[in-house]
Amino acid sequence: MLRKVYEDKDRQEDAIRVITLDWTIVRPTVLNDKPARSHIKAVPDLSGVHGGSIARPYVAEFVVHQLTRYVAAQSTGDYIPLAGCCKTLWLLG
Length: 93
Fold this sequence. Notes:
Helices cover 39% and strands 22% of the residues. The chain has 93 residues and is of the alpha/beta class. It has one domain.
């Protein structure tokens, strides 16, 4: 059932990898409607992770925080890649 979903994910990432700009793909685990808890974890792969979900507000907060840091750095001439350049990050709550 999920085979096509993962094949599509792989095609999306392959298309982005050839872009010469800095990029970061943020992929949440299963989204839930629970209130945000006290921590969030961004990992480059899901090795050793079994299940899990993350509150929607966490995902939004993570993306806004990363973009805010990036824009602020660009305005001062500093270079800060978004959560580490050119990778996929999985968000765990």
